[in-house]
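SAMPLE LOG
Freezer: B-3
Tube label: C17
Construct: single chain, 255 aa
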Amino acid sequence: MMGPHASHTAGEKYIAAAVDGAGALAFVLPALGERQATADVLDAVDGLLFTGSYSNVEPRRYGGAPSEPGTLHDAHRDATTLPLMRAAIEAGVPVLAICRGFQELNVVYGGTLHQKVHDVEGLHDHRENKGDPLDQQYGPAHAIKLTEGGMLQRFLQGAHEARVNSLHGQGIATPGAGLVAEAYAPDGLIEAVRVANARTFALGVQWHPEWKHAEDALSTAIFRAFGDACRARMLARIPGGADRLNAEAPRTAHA
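STRUCTURE (predicted):
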């Protein structure tokens, strides 16, 4: 809501990362569910960035117990993103899913979520201190172990670890079928996944790589790879574009 008015918004940090990090032409997609046909959305974009949010996926979407009173949900977002994400990946549209988007990706593939990671025995408290300045909230919080031979490890030329921020209360409990873990937190919580048989880039991360993305090697690599995949799809849809994919200067994809 913006005052008394229902609104559709996206944080500046996501838009800036899409434009400056991925080199994309950014549009904000309203959460209108079935009022906008998924096929029409996919025809209009070259990639999709699923952002974080203060709201959580409704537990009924993954067979979870009812949320505690006061938990923020967004039924319109669920009705938009869950079918759209699956259709996009199946259609070969590049997908980058961040925080809530990461959790949506897991639900889309049949996985379940911890509603309160900090209440699960053996897991750490992954939430930020909302009283801290933003630079501290989004600063590096813990290391992640990169999966051997995985996409993220290749992005970092074979590194075994990276440091990431941590601003989430929920997380993956049971990973969805067809998802491959790309990184783990020190307590074993999955921090990143990719879709194993996706036709193009399809990655989800639990942390926020969009925050000051240009100052971090892994964040820079993630957005660059996402942008490259978006441009490849754009050129593939232009007559003769596939032949020009490696011959022309990059053009701006729609994400």
